Amino acid sequence: MNRLLRSLPEGAKRAVRPIALRYLGLCSIAVLAAVPALGAQRVYVTYGPLEISVPIESLELFVQTGVVDNTWDGFTQYASQQQLAQLRQALQAKAEVSPVTISQFLYTPQGEVLLERLGRVIQTKGRQPGFYAIRAALILAAADSEGLTPINVLKKFPTYGIRIDIARGLELVNQLTALVNRSNRAIAGVIQLANTQAASEPAINLSELQNPDRRGYLNWEKVSLTMMSKNRQGRNFPFDLYLPTGGSLPAPLIVISHGLGSDRYSFAYLAEHLASYGFAVAVPEHPGSSSQQLQNLVVGRANEVAQATEFVDRPLDIKEILDFLDTLSASDPKYQGKMDLQRVGVIGQSFGGYTALALVAGGGINFEQLDKDCQKEFDTWNISLLLQCRAQTLRRRDYNLSDSRIKAAIAINPIVSSILGESNLSQIQVPVMILAGTADTVAPAVLEQIQPFTWLTNPEKYLVLLNNGTHFSTIDDSPESVFRVPANAIGPEPALARRYLNGLSLAFMETYLANDPTFRRYLQPSYVKAISKDTLGLSILRSLSTEQLQKLLSGTSSPTLPASPPQSAPAKP
User: Fold this and answer.
1) DSSP of 5-58, one letter per residue?
2) Residue 52: which of 70, 69, 71 has the closest Cα?
3) 339, 280 in Cβ contact below 8 A?
4) Cβ distance 459 to 428 under 8 Å?
5) How far, in Å, CA of 231 to CA of 186, rounded?
6) Which of 368, 366, 388, 367 is nearest to 377 (CA)?
7) Starting from the edge strand earliest in sequence, which strands make up the sheet with 220-228, in order?
8) Residues with Cβ < 8 Å from 186, sequence gap 6 or more?
9) What pTM was computed for the model?
């Protein structure tokens, strides 16, 4: 859009601005995911006192044939053939989603927040917010044989006209642009700091080192068990236990917590990798926020992507698994001496990242921070905040979510900025690794990982950046999930992302859980930079202050190398 405006003569910019910005309005309709019969006839685009309109049938002719008729008010005088081709392609873009799925989502609290925001820009001809009309159009388009495309959404809009308020749209665009620019500055600065640190270290000869991302040589067996909660009626769920075979000493235990809409198979590759090096691994399936929950949402057996109680239940799931395995180890000869349940690590992704950090943070749910941040729920670009704000509906009490048996934690794409906040994260006393994807649009890196990293006070901390990584880069396909994330949302080289995670997780847990200091070399910036690939870059940083981050965000100064934290030796078992 901005490129189009910049390409115009100065005298034409003001007049053509509403036309050029039509692209914004038309495409925005199809980004979100609600039933009257009549479809819209015209699109009205307003910008201050100016207004133009285009018949829907003219847009449809353009989509089908590429022909721009004379109702476009001189649009072709200012738009290049390339820009017209881009607009046509955007209007044809089809989202493969069922009407039931999109309907169920749009009636959730998160879906309604998004509709409310979009309805400020896309209105009925009578200037009423488009909330209900947008929802109806999206559901009807998804149910139509032509499918969910922008042009079909326009045709299904249940009023005579669609009014797109470009001034409001521009306000949203400017907000998003400012946020993206700030985020890009911060991410570039963090990567530069990591590169500077790597350059200050001795050169790495990869041929002299083992590859921690390669499978180990130990055998293991997988046992599938069912956890039946003693204190939470009806909270029953499966979990898989990976046990190394042939070891003489109890194995440290690592628990892996999946993200929202995933299951215990999403990180089975990581469980197998860790087990092959001698770790016991437990992988639960959280029943209220798993792939089954999404299926329940689609068929109408659930009305939310996750209940607010999941913010409490998930950490309690893991605490109860540890209690259960402790009892099992004492009572069943098959498990006696197999696991060291006083040396536990936890790894989690997204909602599981929150789960991992909640287990080692103090303070439980940070209601004070939620009350402050969720006042901006309808204006935020942080999609994860919509989920975090659901915790406001919980009963206000002190939830005991931490567990002293956990000695190390890895959080991948965690959502923690408000639900835990600075006051809780600053209390963490165990080693922590936070992994962020620079292209994560669900849990934005700066807001949900980089800034929370600056709140950690324990010197044994690591910030890992996957350059071009998304929210889904490290998640493997599950054989039981009916949902598939589109390839463009997964991002480049997911297999490489999983290898990165294998190596980093092993090195971190060997160092801080198995107390083997020889694995520290694989956590050094110089090593990480040496194995990084251009398509999916990898960086690691040991220290970043709040002041440094603010300077990076504002662009007031170039990043300076942080002082390296002391290298304390791992505690002896």
Assistant:
1) HHTS-HHHHHHHHHHHTHHHHHHHHHH-----SPPP-EEEEEETTEEEEEEHHH
2) 71
3) yes
4) no
5) 44
6) 388
7) 220-228, 236-244, 280-284, 251-257, 339-349, 406-412, 432-437, 461-467, 537-541
8) 446, 450, 549, 552, 553
9) 0.81
Hunting for tokens 């044994």 — which residue is that? Answer: 460
Angle separating helix axes 166-199 and 22-31, nearest 10 degrees: 70
Contact between 404 and 379 (Cβ < 8 Å): no
**What's the CA gap between 381 and 169, in Å, rounded?**
14
Low-confidence ranges of the chain (pLDDT < 50): 1-37, 562-564, 566, 568-569, 571-573
* Kind of pairing between the strands at 236-244 and 161-165: unpaired
The encoded tokens of residue 31 equal 């980004």
As beta bridge partners, residue 244 has 220
Instruction: Of 452, 447, 444, 442, give the one whose Cα is nearest residue 262.
Output: 442
Residue 423's closest CA among 354, 364, 376, 382? 364
Burial 101-134 (b: 16+ CB within 10 A, else e): bbbbbbbbbbbbbbbebbbbbbbbbeeebbbbbb
Three-state secondary structure call for residue 115: helix
**213 phi and psi angles, rounded to 5 deg:** -85, -5
CA distances from residue 250 to 255, 326, 342 in whole angstroms, order as listed: 16, 12, 10
Q: What is the pLDDT of residue 34?
A: 31
Q: Are 56 and 38 in contact (CB under 8 A)?
A: no
**Confidence (pLDDT) at 478:** 86
Per-residue pLDDT at 46 = 74
3-state secondary structure of 123: strand
| Alpha helix segments (H runs only) across 332-427 | 351-358, 367-373, 383-388, 421-425
Q: Kindly state the helix (H) or strand (E) to which residue 59 belongs, with its residue range.
A: helix 56-65
Give the burial string for 281-309 (b: 16+ CB within 10 Å, else e). Answer: bbbbbbbbbbbbbbbbbbeeebebbbbbb
Looking at residue 142, what is its pLDDT?
A: 84
The 8-class DSSP code of residue 217 comes to S
- pLDDT, tens digit, 9 for 90 and up, residues 168-182: 776 776 777 777 888
* pLDDT at residue 37, as a whole number: 42
Q: Is 560 helix (H, G, I), strand (E, B) or coil?
A: coil
DSSP summary character for residue 290: B
Average pLDDT, whole number, for the chain? 84
Residue 128 dihedral angles phi and psi, to the nearest 5°: -85, 145
Q: Which pLDDT score, from 0 to 100, does residue 308 have?
A: 93
Q: How far is CA 149 from CA 89, 140, 440, in A?
A: 10, 11, 24
Q: How far apart are CA 112 and CA 186, in angstroms?
A: 31
